Amino acid sequence: xxxxSESKSVTVSPDAGRRETNVRxxxxxxxSPVVLLHGVGLDAAEISWKHAIPELATDxxxxxxxxxxxxxxDKPRRRYTTEYYIDVLDExxxxxxxxxxxxxxxxMGGGIxxxxxxxxxxxxxxxxxxxGLGTDAPWRPAxxxxxxxxxxxxxxxxxxxxxxxxxxxxxxGYTTQAPEQFVSEVHxxxxxxxxxxxxxxxQRSEFRAFGFKTCYVDELAELSVPTLLIHGADDTLxxxxxxxxxxxxxxxxxxxxxxxxxxxxxxERPATFNDRLAEFLAS
Length: 283
Fold this sequence. Notes:
Elements lengths: L5 E7 L8 E8 L3 E6 L7 H4 L3 H5 L3 E6 L16 H14 L6 E5 L1 H10 L7 E4 L11 H8 L4 H9 L3 H9 L7 H10 L3 H14 E2 L2 E2 L14 E6 L7 H10 L3 E6 L6 H4 L1 H13 L1
Parallel strand pairs: 3-4, 3-5, 5-6, 6-9, 9-10
Antiparallel strand pairs: 1-2, 2-4, 7-8
């Protein structure tokens, strides 16, 4: 029987001690530590890592936090930025006494993991359909404008989560496979207006007039850590070409582009994804 995850919490103070924030995380297994970071807005630890946690926990101590503003962690009214989340990760790793952990992150979580790894020692790094590997995307200009029109940004969140049918339609836009359980889980998140506020805040920080704020491409050659890149071939949000270019620039990396897969490999292709990630982390 696979290890059962426990829900735990830790208090962090990423604002130089000015504000304490309670971070809930899922913990399972024993061994070398692996920290799993989810994406922004529609995501949480139990969404992206639902199938990966029990698989990895057979050989590792798995830590999967709900980043502030998501899931069951605190959702303070503040400006959410990539830098803030890197500070949260730094505090989490310190508070839990994790020594050179392995990191894996999807989408925004990938950008956070990469940003942390560029400044701190980690054992291994896995980036899944990762943010931070490109300067722009075709959909960004329209999204940037919408974020700055009063009411429109909230209307989009509420429309996506109106019914499980609207959630299904939304997921079809950037996934190739959305099982009904997955749809129900995302629908539940979309009922939380605080998660929507978090999403909009981070997007306003990152979606600039002429591109994305965070891009680490010019620093990849400096990253001396084994890195796994997994990307859905049909990702319409962050193209697979980002990971392909990163694979060429990183000193030590391996790349897997998954056919018939969009932006959410851990949920669209869980068996294949888990095999690739578990093999890499165990190397």
